[in-house]
Amino acid sequence: MKFIDEANITVESGKGGSGCVSFRREKFIPKGGPDGGSGGRGGDIILVTSSRKRTLYDFNYKKFFKAQNGSGGEGNQRTGKDGDDLIVEIPPGTLIVNADTGEPIKDFVNPDETFVLAKGGRGGQGNTHFKTSTHQTPRFAQPGEPAETLNIRLELKLIADVGLVGLPNAGKSTLISAISSARPKIGAYPFTTLIPNLGVVKPRWGGEAFLVADIPGLIEGAHAGAGLGIQFLRHVERTRFLVHLIDVSAIDPDDPLKDYETINHELAMYSELLSQKPQIVVLSKMDLTGAEEAADRFQKAIGSHPAKRSPKRSLVRISAVTGSGIDDLLSTIVSFLDAADENRQENEF
Ligand SMILES: Nc1nc2c(ncn2[C@@H]2O[C@H](COP(=O)(O)OP(=O)(O)OP(=O)(O)O)[C@@H](O)[C@H]2O)c(=O)[nH]1
Ligand SMILES: [Mg+2]
């Protein structure tokens, strides 16, 4: 599912250092010639796409980017130091627009693309440079070129990294409310969610933000139109993996994997691609009585289940009410994201 992320920032390149006015002063050379060096170049603002970046989240907090100014030239023909360039990392897929004119500046598609957005000013020339046969003692030098300032808007079409799936009432919307700023409707009845919700999750301990999609619940026969059908699965088709929620209080003691298999069957009926995505299987509502026993039964049953071998699966227990297991789930999500970045597939049961 697509969602537009936007941020406005200001960038400023480095000013050029000014040229220096200076004359040689040495013993026994009463009238030394001009020896003022030129100023250093100002740093550029360089945009680079990095696959580590997934959202524009960080630009909500840091909005001004300044490259270093060039240093002034000095006597003895010393050139000033060049200012350092400033490299700003953005996610692939970001469109850069001039915020004042609305004109597109650059559309980044792939990782590792670089673009000089604002050029640093050239350093001014020192008075050494202005000496001519008729003008032996120039008492002037050039100032450095000014910095370039640009207000830009970044636009990114986001695709959810993680898709939440499960039966109605499994606790999907409660979970996305607990981990992101999304505030979907939550209800103690099936089909509370009728349209997909997206939430940006920023792990508390730092690291890159990622995007989670909460979709309406699936039921047995959804592929044949039961309940709300499987149309919403297209919103999680392009995610890197699924978080599959199972209400632990609804686990059938005689058939602990029933709900789990129902959802997996519907995913498979939708597409091979979806059924082959890695899954973090989450047992929710662990605060309810009898939850531990039910979860143990589930874990025992899944341990001997063929699905544990392929695709990649992992199991986490949570309670969105008490918050238990949420950090564990977030770090598992982050490790799945990292693994998806590296295209690794391995098993964790
Ligand atoms: N005790 C307890 N109740 C929970 C927990 N998580 C969700 N619930 C409750 O379970 C019910 C369903 O939660 P939702 O988040 O709406 O479930 P959903 O999976 O989004 O459901 P649909 O949108 O209908 O598919 C609500 O009454 C929640 O308050 C939990 O960790 N513990
Ligand atoms: Mg819901």
CATH class of the largest domain: Alpha Beta
CATH topology of the largest domain: Rossmann fold
How many helices does DSSP assign?
5
Number of domains: 2
> Which architecture of the largest domain per CATH?
3-Layer(aba) Sandwich
Query: Structural class given helices, strands, pairing?
Result: alpha/beta
Strand order of the largest sheet: 10-11-9-12-13-14
Overall pLDDT metric: 89
Share of β-strand residues = 15-25%
- Mass-distribution shape: elongated
**CATH homologous superfamily name of the largest domain?**
P-loop containing nucleotide triphosphate hydrolases
Q: Major sheet: size, sense and barrel closure?
A: 6 strands, mixed
Distance between termini? 30 Å
**How many DSSP E strands?**
14
Q: Name the hetero compounds present.
A: guanosine-5'-triphosphate, magnesium ion
Q: Show unreliable segments.
A: 344-349
Helix content: 10-25%
N to C succession of SSEs = EEEEEEEEEHEEEHHEHEH
Radius of gyration: 30 Å
Describe this structure in words.
With about 350 residues, the protein is of the alpha/beta class. It has two domains: about 1-155, GTP1/OBG domain (Spo0b-associated Gtp-binding Protein, Chain: A); about 160-340, Rossmann fold (3-Layer(aba) Sandwich). Helices cover about 15% and strands about 25% of the residues. The protein is built from five helices and 14 strands. It has helices spanning about 170-180, 260-270, 270-275, 290-305, 325-340, and strands at about 1-10, 45-50, 65, 85-90, 95-100, 105, 115-120, 150-160, 160-165, 195-200, 210-215, 240-245, 280-285, 315. Strands 10-11-9-12-13-14 form a six-stranded mixed β-sheet. It has a five-stranded mixed β-sheet with strand order 3-1-8-5-6, with no helix packed on it. A three-stranded mixed β-sheet has the order 4-2-7, with no helix packed on it. A hairpin with a 5-residue loop joins strand 5 and strand 6. It is elongated and about 105 Å long. It starts with a strand and ends in an 8-residue tail after the last helix. The structure holds guanosine-5'-triphosphate and magnesium ion. Guanosine-5'-triphosphate binds near residues 170 and 193. The site of guanosine-5'-triphosphate has 24 residues, from helix 1.
